[in-house]
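Researcher: Let's continue the batch. This sequence belongs to Ferredoxin, and it's 58 residues. Same format as the previous ones, please.
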Amino acid sequence: MVAKINPESCASCGSCIGECPACAISLNDDDVSFVIEDKCNDCGVCLDVCVHGAITII
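Model: Same format as before. Here are the structure tokens for Ferredoxin:
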């Protein structure tokens, strides 16, 4: 399982980037967060900090 970020819901606030213990979230060229799937350890911290509800674990 891995976290996925809905680009339409992402507000580019960066809260998930700073909280991810695996450093598995980054910003793309459009300043939208995305998950580096090989680094994601399915911990769910990003779900807890995303106030926009843009992240799911699938």
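Researcher: Any comment?
Model: The radius of gyration is 10 Å.
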